[in-house]
Amino acid sequence: MRKLTFLFLVIAILSIASPMYAQGGTTTAPTFNWAIPIGAGIGMGLASGLAGMGQGRVAAAVAESIARNPGARAGIQLALFIGLAFIESLVLFAFVLIFLRTA
After folding, report:
1. For 74-101, what is each residue's pLDDT tens digit?
2. Could you give the CA distance from residue 96 to residue 4 in angstroms, rounded to a whole number?
3. Domain that holds residue 95
4. ∠67-69-75 over CA atoms, to 5°?
5. CB atoms inside a 10 Å sphere around CB 6
6. Does 19 fall in a domain?
7. Residue 69 domain-assigned (yes or no)
């Protein structure tokens, strides 16, 4: 039931947001689309928040694995740093894309 409610909510949001990008009338004055900065803020908040949660889970798993096998510390730390760099790069890509879209 919870998945069905979530699906209905997503469909409702998408159906409400789609007319935002419909072709407008032929006006010569530039108009300001108020939804773009709000969407950019929400998107960046989601990207950074979820990446922070992911980094926390990675750090917890690394701490547990080093505690279980201290001899494999070097290999585990290398995988940790590579994984954290990939997670952080996704946030930076989202940041750049948001600025490209709002500019």
Report:
1. 999 999 999 999 999 989 998 888 888 7
2. 33
3. 55-103
4. 105
5. 10
6. no
7. yes
